[in-house]
Amino acid sequence: MSNGGTDRRIRLGMVGGGQGAFIGNVHRIAARLDDEYELVAGALSSDPQRAAASAREFGIDDERSYPDFADMAAAEAARDDGIDVVAVVTPNHLHHPIAKAFLDAGIHVICDKPLAVTSEQSRELIDAAKRANRILAVTYNYSGYPMIRQARAMVANGELGNIRLVQAEYVQDWLADAIEQTGQKQAAWRTDPAKSGAGGCIGDIGTHAYQLATFVTGLTLDSLCADLSCFVEGRRLDDNAALLLRFEGGAKGMLWASQVAVGNENSLSLRVYGDKGGLSWRQEAPNELWFTTLGGSAQRITRGGAGAGPEAGRVSRIPAGHPEGYLEAFASIYTEVAAAIRAHRDGMHVDADLVFPVGEDGLKGVVFVEAAVRSSEAGAGWVAV
Amino acid sequence: MSNGGTDRRIRLGMVGGGQGAFIGNVHRIAARLDDEYELVAGALSSDPQRAAASAREFGIDDERSYPDFADMAAAEAARDDGIDVVAVVTPNHLHHPIAKAFLDAGIHVICDKPLAVTSEQSRELIDAAKRANRILAVTYNYSGYPMIRQARAMVANGELGNIRLVQAEYVQDWLADAIEQTGQKQAAWRTDPAKSGAGGCIGDIGTHAYQLATFVTGLTLDSLCADLSCFVEGRRLDDNAALLLRFEGGAKGMLWASQVAVGNENSLSLRVYGDKGGLSWRQEAPNELWFTTLGGSAQRITRGGAGAGPEAGRVSRIPAGHPEGYLEAFASIYTEVAAAIRAHRDGMHVDADLVFPVGEDGLKGVVFVEAAVRSSEAGAGWVAV
Amino acid sequence: MSNGGTDRRIRLGMVGGGQGAFIGNVHRIAARLDDEYELVAGALSSDPQRAAASAREFGIDDERSYPDFADMAAAEAARDDGIDVVAVVTPNHLHHPIAKAFLDAGIHVICDKPLAVTSEQSRELIDAAKRANRILAVTYNYSGYPMIRQARAMVANGELGNIRLVQAEYVQDWLADAIEQTGQKQAAWRTDPAKSGAGGCIGDIGTHAYQLATFVTGLTLDSLCADLSCFVEGRRLDDNAALLLRFEGGAKGMLWASQVAVGNENSLSLRVYGDKGGLSWRQEAPNELWFTTLGGSAQRITRGGAGAGPEAGRVSRIPAGHPEGYLEAFASIYTEVAAAIRAHRDGMHVDADLVFPVGEDGLKGVVFVEAAVRSSEAGAGWVAV
Amino acid sequence: MSNGGTDRRIRLGMVGGGQGAFIGNVHRIAARLDDEYELVAGALSSDPQRAAASAREFGIDDERSYPDFADMAAAEAARDDGIDVVAVVTPNHLHHPIAKAFLDAGIHVICDKPLAVTSEQSRELIDAAKRANRILAVTYNYSGYPMIRQARAMVANGELGNIRLVQAEYVQDWLADAIEQTGQKQAAWRTDPAKSGAGGCIGDIGTHAYQLATFVTGLTLDSLCADLSCFVEGRRLDDNAALLLRFEGGAKGMLWASQVAVGNENSLSLRVYGDKGGLSWRQEAPNELWFTTLGGSAQRITRGGAGAGPEAGRVSRIPAGHPEGYLEAFASIYTEVAAAIRAHRDGMHVDADLVFPVGEDGLKGVVFVEAAVRSSEAGAGWVAV
Question: Which residues contact B272 (CB under 8 A, 6 or more apart)?
Answer without folding.
Answer: B151, B155, B160, B163, B165, B166, B167, B213, B216, B217, B278, B279, B280
